[in-house]
Amino acid sequence: MRVVRPVHTAESRRRSCTVRAAVRGGGMALALGLMTLSASAQRIDNSVAVFAALDKVTAKISRLEVPLNQTATFGSLKLTPRACYTRQATEQPKTTTFVEIDETLLDGKEKRIFTGWMFADSPGLNPVEHPVFDVWLTDCSFPRNVAQPRPNPGPAAAAGQQPQAPAAQPPAEETRRRRVPR
Question: What mean pLDDT is predicted for residues 36-58?
Answer without folding.
Answer: 83
